[in-house]
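Project outcomes to date are best conveyed with an example. Our students and postdoctoral researchers have been running inverse folding experiments weekly, and each run begins with a structure described purely in tokens. The record below, which covers 108 residues, was selected by the lab manager from last quarter's runs and is presented without edits.
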């Protein structure tokens, strides 16, 4: 039983059905969903910040956590043996998921 299934990216209806599962290289099992209304098949991560990530999410979290704790971009790239461009791309891609505390409390 699925507790959460994303709406169809085409018609935005919630009536999508489980079609199949597939195994990713780094993120375990994923589900292919089917919208009967549009007759399209899509991954559960389609059009989300997680779509197309090839690096394990646990590793990305480690890298971004070190950045939020104050480690510089160069030091992070050197410590985790990743390119600076990858770190910047992960920050941009995942920064909109959770608003910062200051953004929630901001009153003009
Ligand atoms: Zn649809």
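After processing, the design step wrote out the following sequence:
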């Amino acid at each position: 039983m699925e507790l959460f299934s994303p709406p169809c990216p085409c018609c935005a209806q919630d009536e999508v059905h489980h079609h199949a599962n597939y195994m990713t290289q780094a993120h375990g099992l994923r589900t292919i969903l089917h919208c009967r209304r549009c007759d399209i098949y899509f991954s559960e991560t389609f059009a989300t910040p997680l779509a197309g990530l090839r690096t394990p999410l646990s590793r990305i979290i480690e890298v971004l956590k070190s950045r939020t704790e104050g480690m510089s971009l160069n030091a992070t790239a050197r410590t985790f043996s990743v390119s600076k461009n990858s770190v910047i791309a992960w920050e941009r891609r995942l920064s909109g998921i959770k608003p910062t505390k200051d953004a929630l409390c901001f009153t003009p």
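Residues 63 and 69 are 10 Å apart (CA to CA). The radius of gyration is 17 Å. The training component of this project remains on track.
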